[in-house]
Design brief:
The structure is a single chain. The protein has 4 helices and 5 strands, in the order E-E-E-E-E-H-H-H-H. The protein is elongated and about 85 Å long. The protein is α+β, with helices and mostly antiparallel strands. Helices cover 46% and strands 16% of the residues.
């Protein structure tokens, strides 16, 4: 490994920014993680020369400040396979998406079972929700009172 030129970072609020060889490196501080000892910086590299040297680690990989700066140095020196890292991040995103879909499908099935137990369809529920939204505050409160056993108001 040859001598590397150090990237000089300047702080702008919660972001450190540095530039080298047509790449803008930004280190973003996570507001929640910075309160702990956990790695709290994500790295974004934007290639102004369109040579494929772009990456965003937010949501995937976090670093302590010195490690984030070193990661940028490795990107600038070509020591990191950005394409493989982007593929890894895409696979992680897809796995998260599939987990959300599975959890959502399970929640929908449980809700549907409750609707069936009540003897209504989801479309009936949507229609009832639309009608309830048009009731107005007084009618809404009257129905709540009726359900509590207060009866109808004397009119």
């Amino acid at each position: 490994m040859g001598k590397r030129k150090e990237i000089k970072f300047r702080r702008d609020g919660r972001v450190y920014e540095g530039r080298q060889n047509g790449v803008i490196f930004r280190l973003y501080e996570d507001r929640e993680k910075i309160k702990t000892c956990a790695p709290a910086y994500s790295v974004t590299a934007v290639d102004t020369k369109n040579e494929g040297r772009e990456i965003c680690t937010a949501g995937h990989q976090y670093f302590h400040l010195d490690a984030a700066k070193e990661f940028c140095q490795q990107i600038a020196a070509g020591e990191i396979d950005l394409e493989a890292l982007q593929e890894q991040f895409a696979a992680e995103d897809e796995a998260r998406k599939q987990a959300v879909i599975r959890a959502s499908a399970e929640a929908a099935k449980k809700f549907r079972a409750r609707l069936e137990a009540a003897g209504i369809t989801y479309m009936d529920l949507l229609e009832l929700e639309a009608l309830r939204a048009n009731l107005g505050e007084y009618a809404h409160n009257m129905l709540i009172g009726y359900e509590r056993g207060e009866g109808w108001p004397n009119v």
